[in-house]
Design a protein that fits this description.
Blueprint (H helix, E strand, L loop, with lengths): L2 E18 L2 E19 L5 E6 L2 H20 L3 H9 L6 E4 H5 L3 E8 L2 E8 L4 E7 L2 H11 L3 E5 L5 E6 L5
Helix pairs in contact: 1-2
């Protein structure tokens, strides 16, 4: 699972969303993650993954997963064991180029005030993941690696002001 790009000092969180007209309304849930964000590929699949890859998150997530499975076994609760084994402890988002082309998944960049965001939507389950990147250079690098050519500029209230080419990102 080689990394294509990594960025330090990032924040991520899952969200649920609904479509209302031309807008995607989101509501965050679960834990907020902070650390080194990575884009990785898989040797045996055409998927890519955006995930937190620093030691604190990786080892902390592994510990939580093993502890959850162990507790479920001790409590003789296979359902909880299954849930613990499948929980996302690294705030990841998986996608393929085909899913993006077919619009089953959407990746976009947003800029609001001084915040750079990579927003990932999965329309099959109406959930996604939002990542705050540290600066415009990081954001441009991620956009290049992900094939994103534009960004949405939002006003102070989060409303769309305009869509611009990525090279205009401040």
């Amino acid at each position: 699972m080689p990394y294509i790009i990594t960025s330090e000092n990032c924040i991520g969180r899952h969200f649920k969303f609904i479509e209302q007209g031309n807008e995607l309304l989101t509501e965050g849930y679960g834990k907020q993650y902070r650390g080194t964000l990575a884009l990785q590929t898989f040797e045996n699949r055409d998927y890519k993954r955006i995930t937190f890859a620093d030691g604190k998150n990786v080892y902390g997530g592994l510990f939580k997963k093993l502890f959850g499975i162990g507790k479920a076994v001790a409590d003789n609760n296979p359902i909880k064991g299954y849930q613990a084994g499948n929980a996302d402890y690294l705030c990841h988002f998986d996608f393929s180029d085909a899913e993006v082309r077919s619009k089953k998944k959407l990746l976009k960049i947003q800029f609001q005030i001084f915040i750079y965001m990579l927003i990932c939507y999965d329309f099959s389950i109406y959930e996604g993941t939002a990542y705050i990147l540290d600066n415009s250079d990081q954001t441009k690098n991620w956009a290049k690696q992900l094939g994103i050519h534009t960004f949405e500029e939002l006003d102070d209230n989060g409303f769309l002001v305009q869509v611009k080419p990525i090279n205009y990102l401040k």
